[in-house]
Specification:
The complex is a heterodimer. By secondary structure, chain A is mainly beta. In chain A, about 0% of the residues lie in helices and about 55% in strands. In chain A, strands 2, 4, 5, 9, 10 and 11 form a six-stranded mixed β-sheet that branches. Chain A starts with a strand and ends with a strand. Chain B is mostly beta strands. Chain B is about 0% helix and about 55% strand. Chain B has no helices and eleven strands. In chain B, a hairpin with a 6-residue loop joins strand 4 and strand 5 (about 45-50). The relative contact order of chain B is 0.33. The interface between A and B is medium-sized, with 21 and 23 residues.
Chain lengths: ~110, ~120
């Protein structure tokens, strides 16, 4: 089993739609969690950290469920510029980040 | 967020030659930097952890004599791919850690696309 698993997609949605991605992790000792965004042939950029209480940043909401070991990212009112690959990233407790393979989002006009 | 630069952004070299990639933290000091490699349609894979003033820690399966890492200052880490082969062609990305303990964040450089012919 992979340490971090994501549905690769692609998720094809129209502008204005709401879309959600899930990610599961296998190491129950994982300490911190992040969503990164990666555009084609570019480096990953930190989108948001994920806290136990859940957190929101504008149109983006991240949730963590430690009992079920999954993380979610909700994007509301999708924009064309949201098209990218979204990487679920977990700090497994060994001071190293483990990356999922990413979920590709395509927002169309 | 913190700014990390990488140079060069793209390099083409011949098989058997060596290539050096630089990673700099521009507005902060980074005691720890990380080097990743990403093949097309795959996730980032950690190659090594670079600590300022000490030897790098390599992940399993990464040859330390082939991928030389030097972290000589708090703002600069270098990765040298020695005797490069076509299978080393990949996207190499460095990142620097900001913060301590479990709450740290990592910021990535723009990456270096290496093509070995």
């Amino acid at each position: 089993r992979k340490e971090v698993e994501q549905d690769p997609g692609p998720f094809n949605v129209p502008e204005g739609a709401t879309v959600a991605f899930n990610c599961t992790y296998s190491n129950s000792a994982s300490q911190s969690f992040f969503w990164y965004r990666q555009d084609c042939r570019k480096e990953p950029k930190l989108l948001m950290s994920v806290y136990s209480s859940g957190n929101e940043d504008g149109r983006f909401t991240a949730q963590l469920n430690r009992a079920s070991q999954y993380i979610s990212l909700l994007i509301r009112d999708s924009k064309l510029s949201d098209s990218a690959t979204y990487l679920c990233v977990v700090n497994t407790g060994f001071q190293k980040l483990v990356f999922g393979t990413g979920t590709r989002l395509l927002v169309s006009p | 967020g913190a700014v990390v630069s990488q140079h060069p952004s793209r390099v083409i070299c011949k098989s058997g030659t060596s290539v050096k990639i630089e990673c700099r933290s521009l507005d902060f000091q980074a005691t720890t930097m990380f080097w990743y490699r990403q093949f097309p349609k795959q996730s980032l894979m950690l190659m090594a952890t670079s600590n300022e003033g000490s030897k790098a820690t390599y992940e399993q399966g990464v040859e330390k004599d082939k991928f030389l890492i030097n972290h000589a200052s708090l703002t600069l880490s270098t990765l040298t791919v020695t005797s490069a082969h076509p299978e080393d062609s990949s996207f190499y990305i460095c990142s620097a850690r900001v913060g301590q303990g479990a709450g740290y964040e990592q910021y990535f450089g723009p990456g270096t696309r290496l093509t070995v012919t």
